[in-house]
Design goal:
By secondary structure, the chain is an alpha/beta fold. Among the domains are: about 150 residues, Rossmann fold (3-Layer(aba) Sandwich), CATH 3.40.50.261; about 170 residues, ATP-grasp fold, B domain (D-amino Acid Aminotransferase, Chain A, domain 1); about 180 residues, Gcn5-related N-acetyltransferase (GNAT) (Aminopeptidase, 3-Layer(aba) Sandwich), CATH 3.40.630.30. It has 29 helices and 36 strands. It has an 8-stranded mixed β-sheet with strand order 29-30-31-32-33-34-36-35, with helices on both faces. A 7-stranded mixed β-sheet has the order 7-6-9-8-10-11-12, sandwiched between helices. Strand 31 and strand 32 form a beta hairpin. Helix 4 packs parallel to helix 5 and helix 8 packs parallel to helix 10. The longest helix is centred in the middle third of the chain and has 21 residues. The two termini are about 20 Å apart.
Amino acid sequence: MDKHYLTPLFSPESIVVFAGRPDDATQPGSHAAALHQALRAQRFSGTITFLDTSTSGTLADLAQSRADLAIIALPPSEIPAALEIAGRVTCRAALVMSSGVDAEQARELSRIARRAGMHLLGPNSLGIQRPLLGLNASAAGPLAKPGSLALVSQSGALITSMLDWARGNAVGFSAVVSLGQHAAVDIAQVLDFLANDPRTQSILLYLEGIASARGFMSALRSAATAKPVVVLKAGRRPAGNAAAQTHSGAIVGSDDVFDAALRRAGAVRVRSFVELFSAAKCLASRYRPVGTRLAVVTNGGGPGVLAADWINEIGLQLGRLAPERAAALAPQLPPGASLTDLIDLSEFAGPAHFRAAVEAANQDKGLDGVLAILSPKLGIDAVEVAQAVAAMRPQMGKPLLACWMGDATVEAARDALGEADVPCFRSPEAAVGAFSNIASFYRNQQLLQQTPPPLTALAKPDIEGARLVIESVLAERRKILTEMESKTLLSAFHIPVTETILARSPNEAMMIATQLGFPVALKIDSPDIAHKSDVQGVALNIMNGTGARDTYQDLVERVARAQPGARINGVTIQKMAPARRGREIHVGVVTDDPFGPVIVFGAGGTMIELIGDRAMELPPLNQFLARRLIERSRVAQTLGEWRGAQAIDMEALEQILLRVSEMVCELSQLREMDINPIIVDEHGALAVDARIVIDHPAAGVGGRVNGYNHLAILPYPARYEQVWPMRGGGEYRVRPIHPDDAQMLQALVHGLSPQSRYFRFVSSMAELPPAMLARFTLIDYDREMALVAVVDEKVPGPDGEPVEKERIIGVSRYVTNPDRSSCEFSLVVADDYNGKGLGARLMESIMQVARDKGLAEIEGLVLANNASMLKLMRALGFTVKPFVEDRDFVLCSHAL
């Protein structure tokens, strides 16, 4: 419980190897030959034993070969036997280095490993490297240089290329992991280990596909909470889906959704191998989240302008020195220097000028990063300038990047920067792109911090009414809702829609139009027509009753000619919206495999596919996420004061997005949706047309239709909020933890006695490190849960008057074990609230959450001398027994 379950795989102390005989050279270039060469050259301090599947011996003999990890590099036909032997020698993990193992063979190997209780990496893996342990269990070439960067790849070829590049660029790794096709240990499990690995500070990830979106997002969000994660994904498919029945489905491709998922997980995506190398340079320098304002220090106007242009092109901001900072710097620079936009030092700038400019930019709080660009000039020593810039690296509180342009004349200068951990690039665009990766991480971390509930604080929607509409449509074996049904669904979630009435005859159309008042719009109503305008099924600005009657007949006839087999229910009549300076907006929903529902926002109207304005976000949304979603669209530029029109009512538009998020969360049958157009202006927003596609919900775990299983990101579980009376008077609230609780949780730890801190953390630390604090408060509710007990206490305010302030007085937590059927708990209660019943209530509450997740058992380690905790465990019915691996602890367990 104190070590990650994949520790035997990635940090083994003893290894058994099945790779044939070391002197068998019949297959040079094979995985076995490469493994023998790697093992002979490495510095692994643990024990390595070579075994042969054909060796005779008794089980007693095999028992003497007990090991943490078995490495198998044999032909596919011999792998099962080796894996069986590895199980008999009680290996806890196995690595299968092979190629050509198909899916069925891989499933058989997984079954053998599960039966023996082993975690299996492979087959078709190129192996692993752990440079800090001196372990090279791979066919990827020499052991990499030790460092803080982890590389995980589903492509062996990329790993060999990356390691080859790293050797020439002084980049080191904490771990290199080749997953391979059909790997049993998946990308999510590896990410989970690296998130907890103290040797790893940053993670590079190469993906070709994922199996489980929920598991991947859970692990990625957890990892990105603690350390930067950069992802390169291959197989970007073109946007568009021929089977789509809405505009949203037609314009959104799977790659767009993957982008949205990575943003929401707090990771950064790069588009090319070159960008991945650039990111590796920055991550190896351990730069952390910053803003988007990049200052450019240059000795040449042209390169500086190129950098500035690219800064604007990719959505960063060109950082400018504050006036007082520029005034103090100017006397230290050559006469031709300019500080208006770029920090242009002029062609006469030398080492001292560069150093002064970088130092001024570092001290300016309005700047988030510094890029130093040098163009070779006569009389200027590029190495001396590089050394001056490199000397600033230890003082920098923000990222420092360099671009030394040229080739042979600046090679030594680049080496000097590299030795000082200053990432150096050959072009201004590459350097700006590398800073963009750091800035994207900062922006995406803000998205990661958001944990919205499924329902907002707005008026409660009529969820049951909406579900009845959906069930009646599905009962008719239909999947496409009519416009009337679609608008009924929107109205159930308080999305404002135009009043719409269905006419079933020309005379009805005339009477309804007259009652509504002119002008009116008429639209064909058919479950078989995806886009009414495509079959001339829309007529606008009908000004009288005769026109409404005649238009009804014309619409029906035109549509019958254009699509003879279409079922026609009639024609809907709606009053035309007043002619205002409104903007046409589109809000939609698509369902992606594997990420589930995604909310789409952009410009609306009849040319939506041609415009292709699509910003995306995974649900659930809150106001912050809704605003960021709007800002990422191109139409956002028209939503303020624009061409004589007043700024729109942004709050009304955000509320529509929040309502759509509620629909997506609560209606698991929703597959595609278009609300197009939404007319939005300074007075509000109005949905003019809508089209919704539904289907039966997918089954959850164990075949059940379960809550929010259709979402890739689990919403904040507000249903577990409760209020309880305090023993001795007063009350307290129990609720799930969220990221905003970080400072209150730190205050709880500060306030504990040394003994209480030791009982909880088995450590004398006085406060939680930032990474641990983030991991404890920003959790994935799918894999773990933390409940906090909160009270309101009066404390002196800034003016000395008492004010109420929340305080966390207890925390219970469980983390799901790898078997996905049991979990490990922890509990801490503030010293001044002991004896008030909090511990028992928090434990009972966390056990109930675990039951709701379908877990079968809860267990935890308690120090043997923690008498009060053991008393509580026995009172709650836990089984208490010695922990055989460490007699200082006892194991407490309870069936759920």
